[in-house]
Design a protein that fits this description.
alpha/beta; 227 residues; globular
């Protein structure tokens, strides 16, 4: 089995070297970049299993880099590493297309747990079920989502939320349950995070299509309107 490929984007040389050393010790294959522009080129040229991206980096900051990655329809899981710990900073990162967020200073064990969790979810969600709601098609084995004839590109978190709603088959899913299952724990996040992701999902799944499928149960959560 080939090693998991990690791209580490961090301009603090000492921190980068330390993280590289620890990740390699855990059997990861690590490439490092200290600049957002260079990192973008590396991502276009090579396939990575997970991307660790600091926000405050030269060339192109982490927010802009993640936007560019998602614009190019690259769905590689992205964990943002940053000193910015305010909820608005986290929501902005998620809005750009990040899948998770860890705030400096942190223990390497926590970062490792998040990497393993996001990779495990990517594998475990690859089931064999197909969900169809009107003209929305979700193939869980291929992790493929279509609306009509259009292929919908989703980030890891977006897909996990969509599949969770689909599996509920029209029953509302609470925001708390989405946080717990998709993130494993809240990590200090609140339900505003879910609202951001559902808005992103609606822009991809419902915008420009009929019927509108992702519905809100006020004060509780969300559901996909079953046929």
């Amino acid at each position: 089995m080939s090693a998991i490929r990690v791209l580490l984007i961090e301009d603090d040389v000492n921190l980068s070297k330390e993280l590289q050393h620890q990740l390699v010790a855990e059997q990861f294959q690590v490439d490092a970049a200290f600049d957002g522009v260079i990192a973008e080129r590396m991502i276009q040229q090579g396939k990575y299993d997970v991307i660790l991206a600091d926000i405050n980096i030269p060339g192109k900051n982490g927010y802009d880099l993640v936007k560019c990655i998602r614009y190019r329809q690259i769905s590689t899981p992205i964990i943002m590493i940053t000193a910015f710990g305010e909820i608005d900073d986290k929501l902005l990162g998620f809005d750009c297309g990040a899948d998770d967020y860890i705030t400096k200073p942190f223990y390497f064990k926590e970062l490792l747990a998040r990497i393993k969790a996001i990779l495990k979810r990517s594998d475990s969600y690859a089931g064999s079920e197909v969900f169809i709601f009107a003209n929305l098609y979700i193939d869980t084995r291929k992790r493929e989502v279509k609306r009509g004839n259009d292929v919908i590109r989703l980030t890891t978190r977006e897909y996990e939320i969509l599949e969770m709603l689909a599996a509920a088959n029209g029953e509302p899913v609470s925001k708390k349950d989405i946080l717990t299952k998709v993130w494993g724990a809240s990590y200090g996040l609140n339900t505003n995070t879910i609202e951001v992701f559902v808005n992103l999902l609606r822009n991809k799944i419902d915008k420009g299509f009929e019927p509108k499928l992702i519905k809100t149960k006020i004060g509780y959560g969300y559901y996909i309107e079953a046929n």
